[in-house]
Amino acid sequence: MGTRVEINLDKPTGNFWIDNGLVVLADLMGEGIFELDEIRNCLHTKLIQKTGNKGEYWDQETGQVKEYEKSNWKYPANLFIKVAGKPQKIKCSDGNTYFKGAPTFELKMSFGKRGHCDICGDQNYLEDAKQWMFPFVVDPGKFANFYSDLKRGMKLCPRCAVSGLAGYHGLLWSSQATNAMHIFIFHTDLREMLRLRQEVFDPLSLTQQKGGNVPVAFFGPYVHEITLGLLLELFSYIRKSDGLPQEARDYLANLLGASETSLALPLSMYTITGIRGQSFDMHSLEEFSRLRDFYMLYKSWITTLGRDNPENGLKEIFRQFYKREGNRDNTLWRDKIAWAVLEFGDPLPFAEQFLYEVRAKQEKPGPLAWGTEDILEKYTKEVLEMEQQLLDVLKDFGHSLGRKAQENREMGLLYSLRNAKNPEEFYRVLNDMQFRLGMTIPEDLLIMEKAERIMNNPWVRVKTLLSIYAMNAYLRSEQKPRKEATNEPA
Ligand SMILES: [Zn+2]
């Protein structure tokens, strides 16, 4: 009797890669005890595909050259597994060298000595797993010494070894040019993960396999923008009737904490980005476990935007933070803003930087996408806890400032405001504006409290928001004919 493996979703290992593989196996074969060979054969059909190309081999029985269909590892396994089936070669009477038989790709595993499995700790016969086979068997926290860790090799029991291989089939991925991202959604309850896979990700799988198997709102080389791109896309399905059936949408909403009967266990997401090439060059691995909090924020943004298709509006708002440079898009600002909102930090400095360094300097400068100010305002109020009163003051004053500056062709004044490095400079610039644009500074802004705060906010946040409103109004006025601009509400 050969080696047997138990597929049991009640026995997770806690490693996100291996557990994902276990879910894949349960999806493919069901739960129970199976012969190792049976599992391996099943994985073989999932991980290896025909390339459509033909090769030749020497058929020893007939003494003739025969054709065979070439195979290769399926993406993304081919980024990591480089072993090709290579039978012996033979030099024939026609002077050419041929394979002695059609090459076959094998999922080789040989279980040797008994010991404790590196992943689950079980006593069993162990496979000396090679680095290329299990590239993601790593704790996010241990990412730094990932390579050195694996150089000594890992010892895996049969269950963890086949699950590691199956993990390739459970990856969500998306790729453009040489950039690739791989995502695992992870839930500590593996049955929930199986359901998520069957009800949500399988129906969403893109038919066109070239660019990925999961849709994203936007794509770039950085980990946070891609994470945000996936979440905005995924969340948008909860309300849309096309794409997912009602039951799946309800389930997804429930999993994300949208309803009162929400599951108690948290959902995490691991995003891995890197460059495709001879071997995958991994750039970063991020764990994101505040999916529910972020979904709540998403919902409040959708309510704020209102209108017909706020989901798309929101995608456009975040998509805009990039710059075309030659034949590539520089998406650094988008990544920084995505990082800030996913971490519930402060995205305003990055939005300000984008507005002043990219938008205002474009050949045809234009304001930020419709709704951007509303989204930033909502965020500043809910996450950064700025009071509505101050927000209103900053918006009114910022908009008039921008329009006045545009009428007087004083864009330089806005840059001085943006560049203010301390409260003294900030007030000096405001004074200057008062004088040159004939404007009165709202009193609320003039009261500096302890620890350099204005109405209980760090002065620099107040400055940043004001400079965003002002420059955006400047660019908006510039885009419109003068007459229309003066009629525009604040
Ligand atoms: Zn194990």
Ligands: zinc ion
Shape: elongated
Percentage of helical residues?
40-55%
The oligomeric status of these chains comes to single chain
Average pLDDT level = 85
Number of DSSP E strands: 18
Pairing-aware structural class of the strands and helices?
alpha+beta
What is the end-to-end distance?
79 Å
Which radius of gyration do the C-alpha atoms yield?
29 Å
**Beta-strand proportion:** 15-25%
If strands are numbered along the chain, what order do they take across the biggest sheet?
A: 10-11-12-13
Low-confidence stretches: 139-150, 483-490
Sheet of most strands: 4 strands, antiparallel
Quickly count the helices. 18
Explain how this protein is built.
With 490 residues, this protein is an alpha+beta fold. The chain contains 18 helices and 18 strands. Among the domains are: 171-338, no CATH class; 346-487, no CATH class. Helix content is 44%, strand content 19%. Strands 10-11-12-13 form a four-stranded antiparallel sheet, sandwiched between helices. Strands 7-8-9 form a three-stranded antiparallel sheet. Helix 2 runs parallel beside helix 5 (158-166) and helix 9 crosses helix 13 (372-382). It starts with a strand and ends with a helix.
